[in-house]
């Protein structure tokens, strides 16, 4: 759509003309000279029933009003927010109200209580684990929603010629570089994932990096090849196991915590790779979920199925 | 006059937040004024990043370092506030899932209506009113 | 020194955002948005949050950008399909006409 | 700690697990699992409610090993399980009532995703009811938004997709504003949990520091949630969202999802900000004015609506306006009226949507008022339930809709200058309601002698009409036995407002 002068000049020209009040939008959309044939057909399908010129006049009027109102709203909002920012505690201030007993305990006792050297990982996966549980379910919800919208198995939406003109796997440079790059990215992703409690990173970043590696693989060697290795069933199973494990593990810890029962999970020796109790397995579970989510986003957008 | 001066000093000191607010407003403007759905989604993303910048800059403390306890130094004096970083991490993931959903809606709408111009879409919506379901 | 670097980056961020607002083509907007995300991830490092920097670089600049490009690609494909359909629709009647004339 | 006190947490984890398992199942088993989940959720909520009511307690439940300012928490008193119960009941009824139609509207391969989305909407509503942490609230608001968008767009017609885009844009701006409000609050108080926030905000307000930021933060949080629940100037997404979805989704979206946001808003107003500070900040008066405007604008738009479901959807704008007007009045009596309004609206709107879709099904699938002539004779049960809903919306005594209007009117006295606008708005809005609801009711009962659809007779299916009849029964129950609910509300408020 972008390299071909099909739609885009249309946007600009309608926009400028319309701003000067010279254009009747309905007319321009219908005139075959401006728009590609497909869009003309679809506009014809939704044939307006009332008087067109009166209607476009109405649209134009309401658009002017909308522009004025939106500008006023934006300016008002920006001013309000700037005034609020001027009234906030200073940036970088060590005595700000946010540096209170909560942050202090996270930093000072975090390593001892959760076993995680990385305070942020300890905070999101142990102290405030319910938020993070919700967050992984945001990903799950959105992958289901994208499946609903993009899955090609639905009625009347087959894209006919998806044949690619470029096959990247035949390109020597791309293939050669990717042969080195993809394993490197994957190893880096796994490193981030497993070291989430020791160094910056964790489930979300590691999973995103892994997902990006898989996406590059699928891009270069083709989606068929990728889906042979990573089948839809595999993805479903991994998501089911990771999220199920996450739910069960966390509900054990929530239940014992709330009922003041003894939990068998110990923080271990801080700094070791096998430490920090549940944080390492949870990081792995979250990482798998994020990785599968990113990869399935790619596959759904690319070819409409996993 | 002094009040105004204090305001300006505060604004100057909170420059990171000011930029965050400006980014949010730019994103909001793109959302309001752009007629292309894809650009609206970009506007939403910019809005979100503005919010995250605002949140993360609230946790920063001048001259302190990232809260990863390596040398056994556990005093709060050396580290920044870890809470905003954790919250922003949540926010970034929410933002990417929302934009994936918006983009898939965009594709479906283009498939049905062959246009991404919201005004044209709105027009089709209004003119096909009153008929069958 | 650090503050100057920070201010330069923030200015670049605002410039990128404004550029996204004023460019006409969605493609340009998306490319600028990816640059914006990369600048953002550097800013996260300056704000002492490397976790966010890694996530933003992988998610914001990587996956979101790819999703945007794929959306544009899909839209192009839909256009091509429509053109293809129309061509076929145009061809079929003409063949019929030929047959009719032949029969006539 | 009694075992029953774990139940809020169980209901949340159970629905999360059900959603994940349904991902692997076919549509039939996913359906069974969802129905099981909703039923068991009703049982769980009833247990919590009776436990809290008998012992007259409210408690905080630690999510993890760390106590209040450090870990996440959920809280339950009387009001939380009461509203969770309401949401579960209404969801179950609308899902059951719209199930048959949903199976026609949704592509068979995608039906299990519909059930997953119902599960996720359920978990987000439960979490919004029980949460005691403002950021958890934000995360579950987002789940709720995405799930509702999916419930709306799963019908895959062009119009529902457009409605979904519009809904998403409004909802995302709303959650962005809410998050900014949370950030401002956090940066001046340094807390995220409700009780600690309440304390910190009280201290800040008394000291007079950061008062402007706090006011803006309150305003942003309220506006964010108001956009998502469809308060008057931001109601543009509502008619299409409710009118174009499949009936089960319409019921869920209009009946419970918007109420979930409103309940979170009430929690924030009373348990985070505190009603005194909320009144002093001036946001309250704005809510009152916009609520009144919404009551009138919504009803006027409903009069001019050309489709039955659009009309019902516009009447939601008016009903949400009542709720915001009550929040703007700010007294305890008005809050009781608000709770009654939430109850009556949540019980009535899904019933109206279900019966409206059945009536239009009896009129050859058409929704314009001309075709609906005499539809009540073609589908008597749907006609009856629609009539009950319409009478309740108008505010006829013995129906649920009468109680909140009475309470609003009685609590309006002694409010100073606010008395007269509230009373006038109630009067005008009732007259407008009569104009469109009674007109429609009479229209569907006037027999059509010679018409295109006169010969159609729909044989009501027990499974489809039973939920609507059940909702009508609940409606009458609330209308006739309001004293019990009043006791629950007043006792709940003692525990709720610290």
Can you describe what's shown?
The complex is a heterotetramer of chains A (306), B (133), C (104) and D (498). Chain A is mainly α and 306 residues long. Chain A folds into two domains: 8-86, no CATH class; 117-156 and 165-303, no CATH class. Chain A has 13 helices and no strands. In chain A, α7 (119-127) packs across α8 and α8 runs antiparallel to α12 (232-258). Chain A starts with 7 loop residues before the first helix and ends with a helix. Residues 1-51 of chain A have low confidence and may be disordered. Chain B is mainly alpha-helical and 133 residues long. Chain B has one domain: Helix Hairpins, CATH 1.10.287. Helix content of chain B is 72%, strand content 0%. Chain B is flat, with a radius of gyration of 22 Å. The N and C termini of chain B lie far apart (62 Å). Chain C has 104 residues and is an all-alpha fold. Chain C has one domain (2-103): Four Helix Bundle (Hemerythrin (Met), subunit A). The longest helix of chain C has 54 residues, at 50-103. Chain C is elongated. In chain D, a hairpin with an 8-residue loop joins β1 and β2. The longest helix of chain D is centred in the middle third of the chain and has 32 residues, at 158-189. Chain D has 498 residues and is an all-alpha fold. Chain D has a domain at 282-498. In chain D, α3 (79-105) packs antiparallel against α10 and α14 packs antiparallel against α16 (380-394). Chain D is built from 20 helices and two strands. Chains in contact: A-B, A-C, A-D, B-C, B-D.
Q: Secondary structure elements and their pairing?
A:
The complex is a heterotetramer of chains A (306), B (133), C (104) and D (498).
Chain A: H1 8-19, H2 25-30, H3 37-45, H4 52-86, H5 101-108, H6 110-114, H7 119-127, H8 129-150, H9 172-194, H10 203-221, H11 223-229, H12 232-258, H13 279-303
Chain B: H1 2-13, H2 15-33, H3 37-59, H4 82-113, H5 118-127
Helix pairs in contact in B: 2-3, 3-4
Chain C: H1 2-22, H2 26-46, H3 50-103
């Amino acid at each position: 759509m972008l390299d071909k002068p099909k739609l885009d000049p249309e946007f600009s020209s309608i926009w400028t003309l319309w701003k000067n009040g010279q254009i009747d939008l309905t007319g321009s959309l219908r005139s075959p000279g401006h728009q590609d044939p497909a869009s003309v057909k679809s506009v014809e399908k939704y044939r307006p029933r009332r008087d067109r010129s009166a209607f476009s006049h109405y649209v134009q009027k309401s658009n002017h009003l909308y522009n004025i109102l939106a500008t006023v709203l934006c300016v008002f909002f920006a001013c309000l927010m700037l005034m609020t920012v001027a009234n906030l505690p200073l940036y970088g201030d060590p005595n700000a109200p946010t540096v209170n007993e909560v942050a202090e305990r996270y930093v000072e006792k975090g390593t001892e209580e959760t076993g995680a050297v990385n305070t942020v990982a300890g905070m999101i996966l142990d102290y405030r684990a319910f938020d993070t549980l919700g967050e992984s379910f945001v990903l799950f919800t959105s992958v289901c929603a994208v499946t609903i919208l993009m899955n090609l198995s639905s009625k009347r939406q087959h894209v006919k010629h998806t044949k690619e003109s470029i096959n990247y796997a035949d390109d020597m440079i791309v293939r050669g570089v990717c042969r080195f790059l993809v394993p490197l990215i994957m190893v880096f992703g796994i490193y981030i994932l497993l070291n989430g409690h020791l160094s910056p990173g964790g489930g979300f970043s590691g999973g995103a990096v892994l997902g990006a590696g898989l996406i590059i693989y699928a891009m270069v060697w083709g989606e068929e090849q990728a889906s042979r290795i990573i089948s839809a069933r595999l993805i479903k199973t991994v998501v089911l196991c990771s999220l199920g494990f996450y739910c069960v593990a966390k509900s054990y810890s929530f239940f014992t915590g709330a009922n003041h029962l003894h939990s068998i999970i110990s923080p271990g020796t801080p700094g070791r790779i096998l430490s920090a109790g549940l944080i390492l397995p949870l990081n792995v579970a979250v990482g798998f979920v994020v990785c599968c989510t990113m990869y399935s986003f790619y596959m759904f957008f690319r070819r409409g199925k996993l | 006059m002094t009040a105004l001066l204090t305001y300006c000093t505060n604004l100057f000191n909170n420059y990171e937040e000011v930029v965050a607010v400006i980014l949010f407003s730019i994103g909001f403007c793109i959302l309001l004024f752009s007629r292309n759905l894809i650009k609206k989604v970009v506007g939403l993303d910019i809005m979100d990043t503005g919010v995250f910048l605002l949140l993360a800059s609230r946790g920063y403390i001048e001259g302190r370092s990232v809260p990863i306890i390596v040398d056994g130094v556990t005093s709060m004096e050396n580290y920044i506030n870890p809470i905003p970083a954790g919250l922003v991490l949540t926010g970034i993931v929410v933002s990417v899932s929302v934009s994936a959903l918006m983009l898939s809606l965009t594709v479906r709408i283009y498939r049905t209506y062959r246009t991404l111009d919201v005004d044209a879409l709105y027009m089709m919506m209004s003119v096909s009113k009153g008929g069958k379901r | 020194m650090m503050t100057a670097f920070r201010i330069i980056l923030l200015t670049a961020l605002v410039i990128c955002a404004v550029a996204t607002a004023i460019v006409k083509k969605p493609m340009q907007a998306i490319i600028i948005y990816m640059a914006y995300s990369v600048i953002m991830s550097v800013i996260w490092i300056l704000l002492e949050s490397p976790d966010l920097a890694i996530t933003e670089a992988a998610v914001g600049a990587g996956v979101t950008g790819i999703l945007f490009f794929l959306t544009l690609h899909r839209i192009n494909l839909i256009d091509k399909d429509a053109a293809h359909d129309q061509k076929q629709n145009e061809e079929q009647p003409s063949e019929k006409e030929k047959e009719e004339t032949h029969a006539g | 700690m009694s075992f029953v006190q774990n139940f809020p947490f169980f209901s949340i984890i159970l629905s999360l697990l059900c959603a994940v398992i349904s991902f692997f199942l076919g549509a039939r088993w996913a359906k069974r699992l969802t129905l099981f989940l909703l039923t068991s959720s009703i049982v769980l909520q009833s247990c919590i409610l009776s436990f809290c009511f008998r012992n007259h307690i409210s408690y905080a439940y630690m999510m993890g090993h760390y106590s209040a300012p450090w870990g996440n928490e959920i809280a339950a008193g009387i009001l939380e399980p009461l509203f969770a119960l309401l949401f579960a009941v209404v969801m179950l009824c609308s899902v059951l009532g719209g199930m048959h139609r949903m199976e026609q509207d949704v592509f068979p391969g995608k039906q299990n995703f519909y059930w997953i989305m119902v599960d996720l909407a359920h978990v987000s509503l439960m979490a919004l009811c029980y949460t005691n942490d403002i950021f958890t609230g934000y995360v579950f608001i987002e789940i709720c938004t995405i799930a509702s968008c999916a419930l709306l767009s799963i019908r895959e017609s062009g119009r529902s997709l457009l409605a979904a885009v519009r809904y998403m844009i409004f909802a995302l701006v709303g959650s962005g504003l809410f998050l900014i409000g949370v950030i401002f609050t956090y940066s001046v108080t340094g807390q995220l949990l409700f009780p600690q926030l309440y304390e910190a905000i009280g201290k800040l307000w008394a000291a007079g520091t950061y008062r402007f930021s706090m006011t803006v933060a309150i305003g942003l949080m309220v506006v964010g949630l108001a956009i998502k629940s469809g308060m008057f100037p931001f109601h543009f997404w509502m008619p299409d969202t409710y009118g174009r979805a499949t009936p089960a989704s319409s019921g869920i979206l209009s009946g419970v999802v918007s109420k979930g946001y409103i309940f979170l808003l009430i929690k924030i107003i009373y348990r985070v900000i505190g009603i005194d500070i909320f009144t002093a900040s001036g946001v309250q008066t704005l809510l009152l004015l916009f609520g009144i405007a919404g009551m009138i604008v919504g009803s006027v738009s409903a009069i001019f609506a050309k489709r039955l479901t659009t009309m019902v959807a516009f009447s939601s704008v008016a009903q949400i306006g009542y709720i915001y007007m009550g929040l703007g009045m700010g007294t305890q009596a008005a809050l009781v009226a608000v709770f009654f309004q939430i109850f009556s609206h949540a019980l009535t709107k899904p019933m109206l949507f279900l019966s409206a879709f059945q009536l239009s099904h009896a009129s050859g699938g058409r929704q314009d008022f001309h075709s609906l002539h005499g539809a009540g004779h073609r589908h008597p049960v749907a006609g009856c339930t629609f009539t009950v809903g319409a009478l309740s919306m108008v505010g006829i005594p013995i129906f649920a809709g009468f109680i909140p209007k009475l309470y609003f009117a009685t609590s309006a006295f002694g409010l100073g200058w606010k008395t007269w606008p509230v009373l006038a708005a109630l009067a005008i809005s009732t007259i407008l309601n009569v104009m469109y609801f009674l007109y429609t009711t009479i229209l569907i009962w006037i027999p059509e002698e010679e018409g295109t659809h006169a010969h159609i007779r729909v044989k009501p299916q027990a499974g489809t009409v039973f939920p609507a009849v059940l909702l009508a029964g609940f409606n009458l129950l609330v209308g006739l036995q309001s004293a019990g609910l009043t006791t629950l509300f007043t006792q709940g408020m003692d525990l709720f407002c610290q």
